[in-house]
Write a structure and sequence with these properties.
Elements (H helix, E strand, L loop, with lengths): L1 H9 L3 H14 L13 E9 L4 H4 L2 H9 L7 E3 L8 E6 L1 H13 L4 H6 L5
Parallel strand pairs: 1-2
Antiparallel strand pairs: 1-3
Length: 121
Amino acid sequence: MSALVVGCATSPSDAEVEKLAAAANQSSKTDICNIHHVRMQKELVHVEYAHLPLEYYSSAYSHARLQSFPHAREYALSLNPADEGKKVRVFVCPQCKQALREWLAKHPNDEWGKLMGPKKV
């Protein structure tokens, strides 16, 4: 029974996902992180073309991102291949970046974390 409780705690409901996504989208237009309530920094980042499969949205990484580090990504995603390589300014939260590093350290074998996490240079 405790595994079920843990599973529910890590998988938000559809309504919670919508609420978290809307809050993240709204705060990406301001400079205050919707999770950590701290001022974010505007960074110039590369645009990457991506078409994420449906299974991404039900992954542990996707859920953790919405709940703990929605503004950690130091790149932007676009559905338009012509945008690949362009640069845009986005708000990045230093506490989201820290939360992402901590999550990745606890989940080193998560495939979505490896793919979507910080890019190795």
